[in-house]
Write a structure and sequence with these properties.
Blueprint lengths: L2 E6 L5 E7 L7 E6 L10 H9 L3 E5 L16 H18 L5 E7 L1 H4 L12 E5 L13 H20 L4 H4 L7 H10 L10 H4 L10 E7 L8 H5 L9 E7 L23 H10 L2
Parallel strand pairs: 3-4, 3-5, 5-6, 6-7, 7-8
Antiparallel strand pairs: 1-2, 2-4
Helix pairs in contact: 2-6, 4-6
Length: 281
């Protein structure tokens, strides 16, 4: 059973969400943060699996995306990180009465957690391919790909279309101009958004004390190469972090990539591991 919801961001903007009630209520609530350009519906199979394992799961779309789209909206990185992610966590605490609050965060969605005023309230976090965005962390020729994307391709799209037409390009959903401008600018700094405190405002990564399981995959070099993923955990000095870097062959698979953990093919290997981590005392 699922329930469609409208939940408020911290600034009051309505966000489309879906609730997956736990098969047996344990007081555990898991919020799923989507990756950049990806709709919450991608994560529904995993959400249903976790609900069957005893976790109430809340999925939601950032403003301008999926079920939170409506008219085209302007949204910045901070809007998604502080207001939208923060609103989902606040809903989990205030309305779902989370006794234990956890997050499964995909890619950029993991970078949002330290923007939330509820960062210190988190108990367990699973980050999947959450990376530092600095372009020089990409291997070999992919450095040129990232630089060209941020300095040529996306600025051209913004100048001509006024947003990033992800759907037309086959990149997932459309991305608001404000977010794209932030991302392209911060990509040029070795400390990514950490190097722009005047833009991000106060961050709370050092207040995260959660136990974390942090995945990366050997065939995800376009989106989250190992060096870029490895560069992020040092910014959470008080979290207890378990890193897992996997190759498809480690699981007898041909491919994992950026989305593989969320595929139904992971129901026999990675999903049980995620569920067990979220359920551990």
């Amino acid at each position: 059973m699922t329930l469609g919801l409208t939940i408020p961001a911290l600034d009051g903007r309505p966000l489309g969400a879906t609730l997956f009630p736990a098969a047996t209520d344990t007081g555990s609530v898991v919020v799923i943060n989507p990756g950049l350009g990806l709709r919450a519906s991608l994560y529904h199979p995993l959400a249903a699996y976790l609900a069957a394992a005893g976790h109430t799961v809340l999925t939601y779309d950032y403003r301008g995306m999926g079920a939170s789209a409506g008219e085209r909206v302007e949204a910045s990185f901070v809007d998604w990180a502080r207001h939208d992610c923060g609103g989902a966590l606040r809903y989990a605490v205030d309305e779902l009465k989370a006794h234990r609050l956890s997050v499964v965060a995909h890619s950029t969605g993991g970078a949002f957690l330290g923007f939330s005023p509820l960062a210190e309230r988190l108990d367990r976090i699973v980050c999947v391919a959450t990376q530092m965005g600095y372009w020089r962390l990409w291997p070999g020729a992919r450095k040129a790909f990232m630089w060209t994307l941020a300095k040529v391709v996306i600025p051209t799209m913004l100048a001509t279309a006024g947003y990033v037409p992800g759907r037309r390009m086959g990149w997932g959903d459309d991305i608001p101009a404000g977010f794209a401008r932030d991302w392209c600018r911060w990509l040029d700094h070795p400390d990514y958004f950490f190097g722009f405190p005047q833009e991000t405002g106060e961050l709370a990564f050092d207040r995260i004390t959660a136990s974390m399981l942090w995945y990366s995959f050997s065939d995800d070099n376009y989106y989250a190469p190992k060096a870029a993923v490895d560069a992020f955990p040092p910014h959470l000095p008080n979290a207890s972090i378990q890193r897992r870097h996997l190759a498809p062959g480690d699981l007898g698979r041909q491919k994992l990539g950026h989305l593989g953990l969320f595929s139904r093919k992971s129901a026999d290997d990675l999903w049980p591991e995620v569920a067990a981590f979220l359920s551990a005392p």
